[in-house]
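Box 3.1. Reading complex inputs
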Amino acid sequence: MSSGASVNPEGGSAQHAGDTGLRRCRENDTGGSARHAGDTCPEWTASARDHPGFSGRDDSGPRLRIVVGVTGGIAAYKAVFLVRGFVLDGHDVHVVPTAAALRFVGLPTWEAISRNPVNTDPFDDVAEVRHVALGQSADLIVIAPATANSLAKLATGLADDLLGTTVLASEAPLVIAPAMHREMWENAATQANIATLRARGHTVVGPGDGQLTGDDRGVGRMSEPTEIAAAALAVVVASTGRRTRSADLAGARTRSADLVGQRILITAGGTREPLDPVRFFGNRSSGRQGVALAEAAIERGGEVVFIAANLEVPEPGGCDIHRVSTAAELREATLAAAGTARIVIMAAAVADYRPVTVSETKIKKQGDASLTLTFVANPDILAELGHSSHPGTVLVGFAAETEPEDAQLLRVARAKQEAKGADILVVNRVGWDTGFGDADNEVVVLGAAGRVLTSTNGSKMSVAHAILDAVLAHDTPT
Ligand code: CTP
């Protein structure tokens, strides 16, 4: 690239269909309107067995006592399917809706679906000390949907309702599925609460990208019930060693806690090379795919070191964050952390060139005369890592390319993988109106000798999990 403007890995839908799987991305479906879910719902019964999060009736594994906390958001209707799936898997499910949740889905629905009485008031059944008994006896607590307000309450340990006392009185793993409008999710207060909850060891599933309740789109959709169930059951396996048939399925088919005890270094965003005190030479990378990778790795129990270069999206919570701006700063931070990482993922778009000189004062316009800037090459961080010995570390690079033809795209990507010595290369297509900051992405993952390991499309979170799956399936170099 003669200008030195690096392309980035924040790719979205591809323009052309082709053999490599780089097909146009599908819109993220909203899940549609609520269906009536009851004991006679044949739709769910049929589909539960086909879903990775649920196994259908499971009499073989231990029955878990699961508390499902439901807080006041429209996604409460999706929590009905979560409860239903757990019940069909044979678990003993107790729903604790907040007062606001009951304005979306009524108490009779929760009782019928969970097949257990539902209490909402800490002063119900005082003789049984109900406000703590449920939490004390739970194997797992799942809060879905978790509103911004409920995240704030959880983060501060407020116990002004039955759900609050239940959570505080419990030592069971806590899995939280947030749902809210994008602005609320991105608000610094919500992000701080999420970081607090993750740092405490709780598992946060989603939220996903896509259509929200109104006309708005973005991050904030509650994850699908099957995804929440899969993550929740995997957490039980990881924390207690108890295996259930449904947890086996969850771990095998979707995400699991397979990164526990592993350090993952992820770079994201785009570097900026200053020209003068007010201008820089940069690129259009938002950092969204890199953030999704960090969140996915954290969700799977990984210890993430995240190097953020000028992100346009909120930082991931619950990880060690280093903020950088230029390629030189990114290089320094990356090389310092790479040695102890099991996986290094170079998702950042690094400027290939920087101006030879940086003006101390603002460069002034010289009448109508043209301006010539001279650039010098930046070091290639991925190549530097790839060409040094890195036993025990899987090195993952990205290649965002503009080639319209799939075959040519893969040729370019394979040449890049070889030149840089990356163990794995994630390839996506970018263009003027493709890829940058999009909610979805479409990638092909290349392994040893440029072999296609997988090709996938969907939300950047689902793509992140697919990339991690491919990385973990890849043989660790020795
Ligand atoms: N990369 C890097 N250091 C650089 C440039 C890129 O580490 N100075 C990494 C990126 O983080 C990415 C991979 O190399 O993982 C590919 O980046 P890309 O910009 O696609 O490749 P370039 O080497 O810049 O090649 P070109 O711009 O010519 O396509």
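In summary: The chain is about 30% helix and 20% strand.
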